[in-house]
Amino acid sequence: MTRFPHLKQDFAASLVVFLVALPLCVGVAVASGVPAELGLVTGIVGGIVTGLMRGSSLQVSGPAAGMTVLVFEAVQEFGLPALGVIVLATGLLQIAMGALRLGRYFRAISVSVVEGMLAGIGLVLIAGQLYSLIGAKAPDSGLEKIAGLPEALVDAFGSGAALASLAVGVGTVAVLVLWKRVPAKVRTVPGPLAAVGLATLAALVLDLPVATVEVQGLLGSIQPPSLGAFGELANVGLLGTIVAFTLIASAESLFSAAAVDRLHDGPRTEYDKELLAQGAGNTVCGVLGALPMTAVIVRSAANVQAGARTKASRVLHGVWLLLFAALLPNVLAYIPIPALAGILVHAGAKLVPVRSIVSLWRDHRGEALILVVTAVSIVAVSMFEGVLIGLALAIVKTAWEASHIKMEIVDKGAGPVQAYLSGNATFLRLPKILDSLESLPQDRPVELDLSGLHHLDHACRTALETWAERHSDAGTEPVRVTTAA
């Protein structure tokens, strides 16, 4: 025991994380449009492969609700055989970024963009899973999912099977919401497991006509990418999907690591090594044709709260998932699909930061706008384009705020008019600068003092020179320009 002084705490924590991860792995896989066992494969790799590596000692990795929408779109567009290629390439890119020590730079991504990304994912996830609650097929695009919901719900009330499915799903969500209010002894069973377990029991006892998980067996579901599948790398759309997978999976993992660090007093995350660990895990998942992995805050928080002290807990949770997948795979066939949909509706709701939006709107309206625009863009267009729009908006906002400019005009009534510029003169503030200069009297000499500028970009310099020439051409004395020494 001296070699493993915290084995007791880590063993207990690993069981809790396993029980939390099991329904989530299966639910994410089903919602992603792939065999349920592939979710378990990713959870196993996240526990055993990524769990053994250095980075964040208490963070737990596996299939994440935040990647569900992107994976579903990729499988629909390129097919399941191409998923392994996408995930493998994602893993190799993450390894390269970790080796190049780029992990720390993900902390520079605007928090509003990341929260907007998660909010957009959450909205699309909720909209899509509401169809699964009633046993209906969801439309492809985010807008179509939302627009078609009222009609789908009205149709559901005319079908006994749809109502039974809806009851199971709503009951699952209700258990998840109310679970924190049950006695502490009962709460030793994780909420997601209790919700799915009760839903499964209800469906069996009442013989409800609801769809259940299709089981193919662990080995039957693993589909390593064939050589022919790598030919898809010539597809520009697939390359864009790989970039999206890489950026989103990396950002989600590293932001999760920062959140987990706030939950415990142990060793801090080494971001570049964590990115290497995530890359190694995704590379293995790609070879096995499984789902992509990220660090998952729900499992990570459960790990910390259960008393985990070292990475042994997350490795053991991967071992328990492996034993379950190998010995009890047929148990999955009893789980109702609407129960898994309920789990993901609840998870999607947690991704929408309503409190953050309200707080940001009070104090930082620009950041709130970035969050909302990113989320709406993801719903209206797609994941990749939505994130790019959010990043572009964040860059423009930062550039605008960085280009503070102050102009002071001193006119004593006689002699030259003095204009003092200070701050950062960039093209973003050019209209304001030129409006002020062009309003000066044309028949008076002007002294333009630029010594207070910290930065003068090429566009502003050219515009100021052009204005000075025009002003001098009016017959007055040439504009005298003073610059910093």
TrEMBL record:
Residues 7-374 form the SLC26A/SulP transporter domain. This is SulP family inorganic anion transporter. It is found in: Membrane. It is a multi-pass membrane protein. The chain crosses the membrane at residues 78-100, 112-136, 156-179, 191-213, 233-255, 319-348, 368-396. Keywords: Membrane, Transmembrane, Transmembrane helix. InterPro entries: SLC26A/SulP_dom (IPR011547), SLC26A/SulP_fam (IPR001902). The keyword Transmembrane applies. It comes from Streptomyces phaeoluteigriseus.
